[in-house]
Amino acid sequence: FAKATAGKPVPSKGQTKKNQPNSYGILEVSSFSAMLDGRPLNASFAIENFADPYLRLNINGSAELAYLTKLLRIDTLEGVIGYATLNADFAGKIKDFTSPNSETIDKVSASGEIHLANFAFKIKNNPLEFMNFNADLKIHDRDITLAGFRGMAGKSDFEIDGELQNAVACLFAP
Fold first, then answer.
1. Range 16-20 average pLDDT
2. Whether 128 contacts 122, CB under 8 Å
3. How do 39-48 and 26-36 pair as beta strands?
4. Buried (b) or exposed (e) across 44-57, using 16+ Cβ within 10 A?
5. How many CA atoms lie within 13 A of 2 on its CB side?
6. Three-class secondary structure of residue 30 per DSSP
7. Using one digit for the tens of pLDDT, what is the confidence trace for 113-125?
8. Residues of the chain with pLDDT > 70: what percent?
9. Where are the beta strands (DSSP E) in the chain?
10. Could you count the other beta carbons within 10 Å of the beta carbon of residue 7?
11. Whole-number mean pLDDT of the chain?
């Protein structure tokens, strides 16, 4: 999977706060670099309060979508190809990312950009093929703006530009 860049230390620091339980510690990694299936990934993150972790994450990188599908164990898609690039910031309690709903997603902060190129896939047990997807997505808080989202669903082509309100939860839904 991801491999840390050989020979380079990962700048990090940790601490606990006075008058806080031992589980409240903070772990901060100011610069993390790795290769994800041969593509660079750079990130910085901080985790506070290990009893109820709060995550601040900045991530910048690109990945082949078939590799990400395996890494994230997405088993409803098959024949996945294409690439994604990501430059984004996320902040919130980890439990709010992993179990998004109308109450918790308001507590999550997200911003950044995702670019999809030549994305194609098939949904398992469905004969329809989705091909030639390209899109630029801009994330701001709970909303996602689509620009140049185009592709083929079966024999039908389409293009969508617009805004999906309260859609960030879809990025984190299991």
1. 58
2. yes
3. antiparallel
4. bbbbbeeeeebbeb
5. 14
6. strand
7. 999 999 999 999 9
8. 79
9. 2-4, 12-15, 26-36, 39-48, 54-64, 77-93, 109-123, 129-140, 143-153, 156-164
10. 5
11. 83
Q: In sequence order, which ranges of the chain are alpha helices (DSSP H)?
A: 65-71, 94-98, 168-172
Maximum alpha-carbon separation in the chain: 63
Answer yes or no: is pLDDT of 2 > 80: no
Look up tokens 């806080």; give the residue.
20
pLDDT band at 133 (very low <50, low <70, confident <90, very high): very high
Query: Which pLDDT score is estimated for 75?
Result: 83
Question: What is d(CA 122, CA 74) in angstroms, rounded to the nearest whole number?
Answer: 12
DSSP state of 99: S
Side-chain half-sphere CA neighbours of 99 within 13 A: 3
User: pTM score, two decimals?
Assistant: 0.76
Q: What is the reported pLDDT for 97? A: 73
Place of tokens 């690109």: 62
Residues 6+ apart with CB under 8 A from 49: 23, 24, 25, 26
For residues 84-97, give the mean pLDDT: 88
Q: How far apart are CA 83 and CA 166, in angstroms?
A: 25
* Residue tagged 């398992």 (tokens): 124
* Phi/psi at 164 (5° precision): -105, 110
